Amino acid sequence: MMYRIERTQQLPVSLDEIWKFFLYPGNLKKVTPPDLGFHIVAGGEGMMYKGMIVTYDIDSIFRMPFTWVTEITEMEEKKLFVDFQRSGPYAYWNHQHHFKAIANGVEITDILEYKMPLGILGSIVHPFLVKGKIEKIFAYRMEKLEELFGVYITPAVIQGI
Questions:
Q1: What Å distances lie between residue 60 and 2, 98, 133, CA to CA?
Q2: Tally of CB atoms within 10 A around 160
Q3: What value, to the nearest 5°, has the Cα angle with vertex 86 and ends 85 and 90?
Q4: How far, in Å, CA of 93 to CA of 34, rounded?
Q5: CA distance 90 to 28
Q6: Bridge partners, residue 8, by sequence
Q7: Is 46 helix (H, G, I), strand (E, B) or coil?
Q8: 135 sits in which H/E element
Q9: 12 near 152, Cβ under 8 Å?
Q10: Per residue in 54-111, pLDDT tens?
């Protein structure tokens, strides 16, 4: 079974500024929950580019470390990038990051499609062990991005409408 999560966040920064932040894989640690034990092992140096391979260690649900390898399979400057799991804990993982300028800021949309390993067993444990953890990772990231860049206020609220 394929799962899909879509999240959108608005931030009060320019498209240039947010793109520059996401362009460096090393910044991922700043928006990843500390309890995941996230650590880039290789490939996270410098700016992201299509074809870039990033290898990192991360703790699993059961606190057992594993290595995850992703490739940047698509990249359009200041519009989107896609990280695709080459090897890791999922049977399939494709994470799209979309960016667009909006009034007084930027909008980020994440579209994650993934498939659990272990067939039916993976589908059984998904709602109990995995889905909530992925949701918490997205919530943490959104909170950290607001700490780093501020809280977006819609133009109508700014004008008192």
A1: 20, 27, 10
A2: 5
A3: 50
A4: 21
A5: 19
A6: 109
A7: coil
A8: helix 131-149
A9: yes
A10: 999 988 656 678 899 999 999 999 999 999 999 998 999 999 999 999 999 999 999 9
